[in-house]
Amino acid sequence: SAGGAGRAEGADCWRGAAARQQSAGTMSEQKKKVEELMKRAEKAQSSGGGGQRMNATARVKNKQPAPVQITAEQILREAKERQEADPKPSKSKITDADELAEYRLRKRKEFEDGIRRNRNALPLWVKYAMWEETQLEFDRARSVWERALEVDHRNVTMWLKYAEMEMRHRNVNRARNIWDRAVAILPRVDQFWYKYAYMEEMLGNVAGARQIFERWMQWEPEDNAWTSYIKFELRYEEAGRAREIYERMVGVIPKVSTWMRFAKFEGKYGKPEQARSVFERAVNELGEHAMDPELMMAFAKSEEKVSEYERARAIYKYALDNIPKSKAAELYQAFVAFEKQHGDREGIEDVIVSKRRFQYEDDLKQNPYNYDTWFDYARLEEQGGDPDKVREVYERAIANKPPSKEKRAWRRYIYLWIYYAVFEELRMGDTDRTRAVYREALKAVPHGSFTFSKLWVLAAAFEVRCKDLKAARAVYGRAIGTIPKDKVFRSYVELELQLGNVDRVRTIYEKMLESFPANCRAWTSFAELEQSLGELERARALFEMGVDQPLLDQPEVLWKAFIDFEIAEGENDNARALYERLLERTSHVKVFISAAQFEAGAGEVEKARAMYQRAEKASKDAGNKEERVLLLDSWVAMEEGLGEEGAAEDVKKRRPKQIKKKRPLTDAEGNTTGWEEYYDYIFPDEANTQALKILEMAQKWKKQKTG
Q1: What gap in Å lies between CA 215 and CA 681, rounded to an integer?
Q2: Separation of alpha carbons 108 and 114, rounded Å
Q3: Looking at the predicted structure, is the pLDDT value of residue 243 above 70?
Q4: Cβ proximity of 166 and 133 under 8 Å
Q5: Which one of 179, 189, 331, 548 counts the least CB within 10 Å of its CB?
Q6: Distance, CA of 389 to CA of 350 (rounded, Å)
Q7: What's the rounded Cα separation, in Å, for the pair 181 and 161?
Q8: Rounded to whole angstroms, how far apart are CA atoms 517 and 553?
Q9: Whether the predicted model's global pTM rises above the 0.70 cut
Q10: How many angstroms separate the CA atoms of 669 and 169, rounded?
Q11: Nearest to residue 576, comparing CAs of 554, 602, 557, 558?
Q12: What is the mean pLDDT of the chain?
C-alpha cells in the first residue's frame, strides 16, 4: 500500500510540473505581446505631426456614450472566467517504512507547532486526533483527545467526536467511559444522553439503556427527553412502564401538551375511561391554564371517538363559554362540524347563534363603542330567551360611555338604555328593574352640557303606566328644573289635559313661556287652549302679549293664529287692524296677499283692490320684481273669481314681459370666472324708461366713434 501511494504521489508531481511548464510558456508569450505593444506606442508617439510629441494627457475627441455599455458585473464575470486555476500541491511518494516514519514525524511536528502557537484552536486539535486515527495510532489519538479536553472540557463537539471514534472502532467499554464522563460533566446536554442510550440499545443492552434513561430523568429534562424514554419502552411493548413514565412526566412538566400526550397514549393503549380520567385530571390540576382550545378540543374528540356525543357536546359548550372568544375560532369550527355531523336542528341553530355571538364579540373587541353592534348582539340574545345573557349584554353595552361630550355622540348610547328599559318592562314585566334602569340612565347623562327629552318623557310615561301619577309629575318636575325642554313641556301639558287638570296646564304653560318667551307655538297653543275653554279675553290677551315680544322664532305663525282667531270670532275690524299692525312691521308680499284675500272674503272688493294696489306700489318701490309678479298673479286670480267684466284684463296688462339675460360670475376675489343666464322682468311702466336708456347709450357710443 505504501508503494501504491508513492506511485500516485509521483503521478501527481509529474502533472504539477507539466502544469507549471505550460503556465510558464503562457506567461512568456504574454510578456512578448506586451513588449510589442509598447514599441508600437513609442513609434506612434514619435511620429506625431511635424515630429512633435503628443501631449502627456490623452485627448478624448468623442465624449458621447458608447452604444454598448459594459457593467461592473460583466467585468467581474469576465475576470472570473479568465482566471487561471491554482496549481494543486504535489503529493509525496512514500515507498518504505523509513519514509512513512519521517512523514509521520513531520506531520506531528506541524500539528504540535500549530498547537504551541495557539493552544485554544480546537479545530486543530480535532484534525490532529483524527489524523492519528487515520494512521491507526489509537493511543496517540486518545492522548490528543484527552489533551484537548484539558483545554476545554465543556466543548460538546470534542466529547462527541471522541466517543464516536471509540464507537467506530467498536471499543464499547472505552465509549461507555467517555459517555459516563460526558454526562457527568455536562448533564444538561441532551445529545450526550441520546447518543449514550442509542448505543446501548443498538448493542442490545435494554436494561443498560433503561438505566441511562433513569439517570437522565433524575435531572428533570424537557418533555422531548421524556417522550424518547416512553417511545423506548413502547418499542419493547412495555405499556405499563410507559404509563408510569407519563405519570412522572405530568408531575414534573404540568403543561397542556404533556397532558394531551398522556391522554392520547391512554386512548391508544388503554381504555376510554382511562383517557377520560386523564383529561379530567388535566382540567382540575391545570386550573386556569386548562382553558386551552387544543386541550378541550382533544377532550371532545376523544369522547366523540367513543360515541359519547352528549359528553362531547357538553365539553364544547363549556369550553366556548369559558375560553376567550379571540382564542376560540378553531374550537368553534370544530363544534360546528360536530353539530353538523351528530346534532339535530336545534343544535345546529344553537351553533349558528354561537357563531354570530362570536362575530359580535370579535367586532366589539375591536371597537367597544360600536353601539349598532351592541343592538344586534342584544337582539340576538333576546331571541335566545335567556334573560341573564340579555342583561349581561346590556350591562356591558351601557358601561361603554361615549368619550366625547358632544350630544350627537350620545344619541345611539341613550337608545341602549331605552331598549334595556323596554326589555325589562315588556319582556320580563319587572317594574322595579325598569324604574332602576331609567333612574341610572338619567344619572348617566351629563345634564350640565345637554339632556335628552325623550328619556325624561319615557320615564314619566312608564310611571303613568304604573298608575303612579305622583312619580310621573316628579319626573317632569325634575326635567323642567334640570334643563327645560319644549318637548318635555308639551308632553306634560298633554298628560294634564288628559287628566282634565286645567289649572295645572295653565301653570305649565306659564312656566314654559317663562323659559321660552320666543316660542311662538307655545303662545299659540296656550291661546288656543283658552279659546277652547271659552276664555276669549284670556286668549286675546295671550296673543297680544305674544306679538309684543321683542324676539320671536316664528312670528308669522303667531300673527296668523291671532288673525285667524279674530276672524273665527267674527271680529273683522280687529282682524283688519291686526293686518295693518303687521304691515307696519313688514311689507312682505304674502302679508299683502293675505290681507287682500281677507277683504275679498269679507265682501270688501274695493278694499281688496286698494290693498293690491298698495302692495304693488310697495313692491315697485322696493324693486322686488319676483314679488310683484306673484302679487299680480294673485290679483288676476281674485278678479277672475269675481267675474267682473274687464277687471281681470286691466290687471293682466300690468303683467311684465319675461326676457333672458346674462350676468358675470365672480369669485371671492372679484375676478370674473364665467357667465350665467337668468330671466328678468320688464313691466309696462318700465318699457319707456328702458327704451330711453338704450337710446342714450347709442348716442353716447356714436359720439365716441365720431370724436
Answers
A1: 113
A2: 10
A3: yes
A4: no
A5: 548
A6: 14
A7: 14
A8: 9
A9: no
A10: 102
A11: 602
A12: 80
